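Study the following:
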Amino acid sequence: MIALTERQQKVLDFITRFTQMHGYSPTVRDIAAHLGVSSPSGVNRHLEALEKKGWLKKTGASRGIVLTSHGGQSIPLPIVGTVRAGQLQPAIEDIQGFFSVDQGQVKGEGCFFLRVKGNSMIGAGIFDGDLALVRPQPVAENRDTVVVMVDGDATLKWFHREPNRIRLQPANPNMEPIYVGPDQNVSIVGKVVGIYRQLE
């Protein structure tokens, strides 16, 4: 599965709702009216992109849009920004789009994606550019992969609670752990429960 833009996700959501309500797919004109545009060419570009990404197929008929099986059971989650898999850096909160995954893969409320920047977790199979699926939770167990805020800056690391401090351990032998003392403000944003990667 490939990430969708916000506009593509809006088109997909409308097609899904329309098909569930009426038992047949909308026309290009129906979609254009929903988007508030007059030209069908923009709608067709979105449909071509969704077909290329595997979310639907077009048969050529007026109401010939067919959702693929995973498209009908998907749930869109926001890509809310970037998190550094390296040294502490300010978190960038800016919705970059949406990425749809199968509903069965989402455990818990309020899940979201962050785009990974950096190589400190390559030993855990988390690479620069990956999308990390984060489940919000305020606590973590030792060795959980978490997104954590320290004095307002964010990072993605393995979590270890030690006497009088917290160790944020990278999965890269060339990088040092980050130690958080009792005088620092630390909060767990959530646990990383999935990693998604586009291969080409």
